[in-house]
Amino acid sequence: MYVAVKGGEKAIANAHRLLAARGRGPADTPRIRHDQVRDQLGVLIARVMTEGSLYDPDLAAMAVLQAQGDVLEAITLLRSYRTTLPRFGTSEALDTSALPAADRRISAAFKDIPGGQRLGATFDYTHRLLSGSAPQPVPPDGDDAAPSEPMPRVTDVLGASALIEPDGDADDGDPDPGDLTREPTVFPMTRAERLQALSRGDEGFLLALGYSTQRGYGNTHPFAGEIRVGEVEVEFDAPEIGHPVPIGRIELTECQMINQFVGGGGREPQFTRGYGLVFGRSERKAMSMALVDRALRADEFAERAVSPAQDEEFVISHADNVLATGFVEHLKLPHYVDFQAELMMLRGLRHEFDDPAASADHLPTSEHTGNDMEVGA
């Protein structure tokens, strides 16, 4: 039935060559190296690594170059490569409180916090004016000096006074979360599984949903309790050694949102939490993730779930940009047979509409439809 698409191999090969030529640009222009992309486009690399579920700045930079800057294509390339890697074991849970030397650490809830606020590298205070040249780096000032005192989480300070809900359920024994990369998605999900899916989810989609909760579609208008950007040590669980082994450090962005308080039913009023954690410098994604995380916890607090951001199946099923891209872009592939079937059906309906007296016997049979589809293809 798909005879018409045969013989297109030469055209496809030519399309590949044309794509490579477009990506290369003029031959007299120096080719961009992946280390330049890695070192100078850190925010882009962070997104590709996070949504590609693989922390490797070099591979992410190579994917961005191969995809010619198409972020979703780069994410797809990274995920595809990830599936070819062997799995040697698991790492210990990251201790994100061990970010004493955070590159950036701010709180919108308190002005004075233990350890102080650190603006770090941020676009927050820049003028959004297009410049003809890249800004020149300046020597760091006192704000970038190593902190002299510990930086406890702002939410831990509130937790010490029981003003915010506990961080996790101490009664569940902290079971190992499922792995969405190896196990099928089953609803309802645990919060740990949802956080995995949100971390891998499309930044733009989560941003829109998070924004919707602030506009009333989810009743969430939180305070940014704390946002941290910095490196944390990764420890590998090596059974043959008998203790975890440090294998390196990775850069993370963590967001703790302080949301509206709840109480009643014998429970004292407390603030609630929203949480976001992503690779690299990606504050917008971490904040959006925290907003949606809190919205999806409506059932925990006996809240009415009436908005899209509160619908777990809707959010999780549509957040993955690799799945969304594949489903949308597959429409570009040949659908000649399917369309001919629809076309024959429409012609039959039009025939019946124009001549109501016509019986079903006069409509095209499946045999006729099949022959016509072959001709149409």
Automatic annotation (TrEMBL):
| GO MF terms, alphabetically ordered | lyase activity
Q: Which UniProt keywords apply?
A: Lyase
Instruction: Report if keyword Lyase is assigned.
Output: yes
Instruction: Quote the biased-composition stretches of kind Acidic residues, using this chain's numbering.
Output: 166-177
Name the InterPro entries on file.
Answer: PhnI
Region: Disordered, residue numbers: 130-184, 357-377
Q: Which GO terms describe its biological process?
A: organic phosphonate metabolic process
Q: Does the keyword Lyase apply?
A: yes
Protein name according to UniProt? Carbon-phosphorus lyase complex subunit PhnI
- Protein species of origin: Nocardia vermiculata
